[in-house]
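Extended Data, panel c. Modelled sequence:
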Amino acid sequence: MYFLLLGCSLPMVRQEPPPGSQVSSVMMKIVAGFLVLGLILCQAEGDYVLPKPNYNEVKVPRFQNATLPCEFSFIEGTQDMSFIWLREDIIEEIEVEDIYAYIQQTFEFKEPQVVYSFHDNHKALEDQSYAYQERVSVDKEEVGDGVLTLYMHRVDYQDEGLYTCRAIGPHGKGEIKLKVLIQEEEEPPVVMATEDNVTVAKCYSAGWYKVPIVTWYNRREEEISENSTIIVLEEKEDGSHRISSTLSSVKSHEIYHCHIRDAKKARRARTVHRKLKKGALREYGEF
């Protein structure tokens, strides 16, 4: 039986205890020592460590539209040309001191989600993930010129991830990798209005919030939220709200920005990998 450890396959040693007895702590330390030695030897094989892919970051405000750029010079027309957009979870590494927790972790392979695909002059969306149906598009007029930019409508936390744009044609092939991060704050448009013969600034949330927090800024990025109020427009059964906010004491020549976020921290899609904290091998002898 084998397990994957930092890209190396090491034999998993299993000691079968005699009936009615337990594996002694001494034997467990011997087994752990063997595994740690294998880990150290694996880490020493630097020639076999693959470099991590380089992802360019794209940061998008929550509930706004995202533009993921992708362009290849080798594309000349759409005949015999294919391209695909794929999404994978962001991998988050956490440090642990417990070697057993590190060794016992499992690495589950997840198929990348198909966001958008194109083959021989036509969209090929049979395998498209449900999460992206009718939410993404590519400008067909630009595909023949090598512009495969993906437009994504109303992004949310589940859209965070590692995106790959991959293309192949008669004159070459290539791929571009992007890391999409969703900013916690929504920044809706600000409109000027008149209420009771007084000019005010208003904004309306596109998203739903359990505990909405609205912050107003002027063009100098000074916070001026003390003159604002919040009104609930709609409420869902789960207790989340769509809101509007009104800022008073405004000046017609000033520029205002409205930021909305939820006090409740949202869960983001992540794949978690454990790595050993520096010095964690000291108990077993470090080299």
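Helices lie at 25-44, 99-103, 140-143. This feature is highlighted in the accompanying rendering.
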